[in-house]
């Protein structure tokens, strides 16, 4: 499998370079970034020279390297443009960049169907995080009250996280009742009770030292239930990324969420 990594010089991109490089049947044929252009990606990732330089032109790199798959870990501001370029080049996709809206997803599905392209898009490639979402949706019908706290490193630019949004959607779909009415609260500091989606309060914490963490706290009569997941380093996402690459040949069209490809 011939793979190009977009955002290769970033935190996740470098981890994906190491993970792909360790797989015998997956070949890293190109890397793209707006940063560290011209440098050997192997040297940047402490793997020794790999003979693959960081390029700035995605379209040129996909075409010249005859890539079969583009992996994208860039930024919510540029990911849709990168996906459009990959679709126009007829390249399959594994996308981990967050910030893709439901409207974006519909557009990707339509364009991918027209061109016969396959894509796996997941806001979280960590298996434990996927289970946290699943367990939260299982608990949803037993507890009316729930709040979500997601915590990430201070360089994350989108809030709430894609995982938190997906968790809330899954809880809302599963619980089968209206969210309870809220009290008329007095916020002495604006937005101190967080944002609200589907009647569920969401809180985003950004601090150095964190990687990616989430707590889903259900409250009931005389009890709470907390479902918590911690990615303590970025290697936690790599088995999911490699699994997604291998699953591309089995899926049809666009799959959103790692839970849909876990066997
Ligand atoms: P980062 O800022 O460390 O890396 C992003 C890289 O993309 C940078 O090197 C940047 O120069 C590059 N970039 C920016 N614009 C570009 C463009 N137009 N073309 C090519 N490269 C470009 O960020 P990160 O921590 O690696 O995270 C990247 C994305 O992945 C974020 O959206 C983050 O939320 C997401 N993420 C997803 C998962 C998951 O499991 N799905 C896990 C962690 C992070």
Secondary structure elements and pairings:
Layout: E1 2-6, H1 11-21, E2 27-32, H2 41-44, E3 54-55, H3 58-64, E4 69-72, H4 79-88, E5 92-95, H5 102-115, E6 119-121, H6 127-139, E7 145-152, H7 162-175, E8 195-197, E9 200-206, E10 212-220, E11 223-231, H8 238-247, E12 254-256
Parallel strand pairs: 1-2, 1-4, 2-3, 4-5, 5-6, 6-12, 7-9
Antiparallel strand pairs: 7-10, 8-9, 10-11
Helix pairs in contact: 1-8, 4-5, 6-7
Nicotinamide-adenine-dinucleotide binds at residues 6-7, 9-13, 32-35, 73-76, 78, 96-98, 122-125, 155-156, 212, 237.
Q: Could you explain how this protein is built, in words?
A:
The structure is a single chain. This protein is an alpha/beta fold and 263 residues long. It has two domains: 146 residues, Rossmann fold, CATH 3.40.50.720; 106 residues, Dihydrodipicolinate Reductase, domain 2. A seven-stranded parallel β-sheet has the order 3-2-1-4-5-6-12, sandwiched between helices. A five-stranded mixed β-sheet has the order 8-9-7-10-11, covered by helices on one side. Strand 10 and strand 11 form a beta hairpin. The chain is elongated and about 60 Å long. The chain starts with a strand and ends in a 7-residue tail after the last strand. Nicotinamide-adenine-dinucleotide binds next to helix 1.
């Amino acid at each position: 499998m011939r793979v190009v990594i977009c955002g290769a010089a970033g935190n996740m991109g470098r981890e994906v370079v190491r993970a792909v490089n360790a797989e015998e049947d997956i070949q890293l044929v190109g890397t793209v970034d707006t940063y560290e252009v011209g440098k050997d990606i192997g040297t940047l990732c402490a793997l020794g020279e790999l003979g693959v330089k960081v390029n700035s032109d995605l379209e040129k790199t996909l075409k010249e390297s005859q890539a079969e798959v583009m992996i994208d870990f860039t930024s919510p501001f540029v990911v849709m443009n990168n996906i459009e370029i990959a679709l126009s080049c007829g390249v399959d996709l594994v996308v981990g960049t967050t910030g893709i809206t439901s409207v974006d997803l519909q557009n990707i599905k339509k364009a991918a169907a027209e061109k016969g392209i396959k894509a796996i898009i997941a806001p979280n490639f960590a298996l434990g995080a996927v289970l946290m979402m699943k367990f939260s949706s299982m608990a949803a019908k037993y507890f009316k009250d729930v709040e979500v706290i997601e915590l990430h490193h201070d360089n994350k630019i989108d809030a709430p996280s894609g995982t938190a949004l997906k968790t809330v959607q899954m809880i809302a779909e599963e619980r089968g009742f209206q969210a309870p009415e809220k009290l008329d609260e007095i916020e002495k500091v604006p937005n101190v009770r967080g944002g609200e989606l589907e009647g569920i309060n969401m809180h985003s914490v950004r601090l150095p030292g964190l990687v990616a963490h989430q707590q889903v706290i259900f409250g009931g009569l005389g009890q709470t239930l907390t479902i918590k997941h911690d990615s303590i380093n970025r290697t936690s996402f790599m088995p999911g990324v490699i699994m997604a690459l291998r699953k591309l040949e089995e899926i049809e069209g666009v799959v959103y969420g790692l839970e849909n490809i876990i066997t």
